[in-house]
């Protein structure tokens, strides 16, 4: 059986593109970044792993000055949705020198949702970081509200702490 050279060429191009461009992404509930030693250790670890995009939940970032401080310490681009002093807050951090173009940035007022539309290697991505409420009723309302956020045909990367467990007795 002979394979046509055109489809084979397209397949090889697709595979080459996948091999050349892979996003290295991680999501972590950090349970607060206010402790300096903890934050420095976490940033050191994440930098050593050469991760492209980091989704953090429970950052406890509650103001612009703190967001700027953490951004300076990180060294790459950072985006935050502010939470409380001791609760919530989500962030998306990019590896230093990671090439992307920001198209839009959206967040809620509770530090539970952060959406970022970006272009990387001519591909559009919607990055969505969530920190869902742990109360079941509030969590259902929160997830129902995500319908509008997740609409569209753009590639999506959805990460976060969904605050759901398979077995409550084990959590």
Report on the architecture of this protein.
This protein has four helices and eight strands, in the order αβαβαβββββαβ. With 171 residues, it is an alpha/beta fold. Strands 1-2-4-3 form a four-stranded mixed β-sheet, covered by helices on one side. A four-stranded mixed β-sheet has the order 5-6-7-8, with no helix packed on it. It is globular and about 55 Å long. The mean pLDDT is 88.
Largest sheet: 4 strands, mixed
**Overall pLDDT score:** 88
Ranges with pLDDT <50 over ≥5 residues?
none
**Helix percent band:** 25-40%
The strand order across the widest sheet is 1-2-4-3
- Class derived from helix and strand content: alpha/beta
Spatial separation of the terminal alpha carbons: 56 Å
Instruction: Tell me the series of helices and strands, N- to C-terminal.
Output: HEHEHEEEEEHE
Strand fraction equals 25-35%
């Amino acid at each position: 059986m002979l394979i046509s050279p055109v489809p084979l060429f397209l397949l090889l191009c697709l595979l080459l593109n996948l091999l050349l461009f892979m996003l290295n992404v991680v999501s972590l509930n950090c349970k607060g970044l206010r402790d300096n030693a903890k934050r420095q250790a976490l940033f050191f670890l994440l930098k050593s792993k050469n991760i492209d995009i980091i989704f953090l939940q429970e950052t406890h970032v509650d103001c612009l000055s703190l967001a700027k401080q953490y951004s300076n310490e990180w060294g790459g681009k950072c985006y935050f949705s502010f939470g409380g002093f001791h609760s919530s807050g989500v962030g998306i951090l990019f590896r230093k020198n990671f090439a992307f173009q920001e198209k839009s940035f959206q967040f809620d007022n509770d530090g539970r949702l952060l959406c970022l539309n970006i272009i990387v290697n001519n591909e559009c991505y919607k990055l969505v970081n969530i920190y869902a409420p742990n109360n079941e009723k509030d969590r259902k309302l929160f997830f129902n509200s995500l319908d509008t956020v997740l609409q569209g045909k753009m590639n999506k990367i959805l990460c976060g702490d969904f605050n759901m467990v398979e077995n409550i007795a084990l959590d």
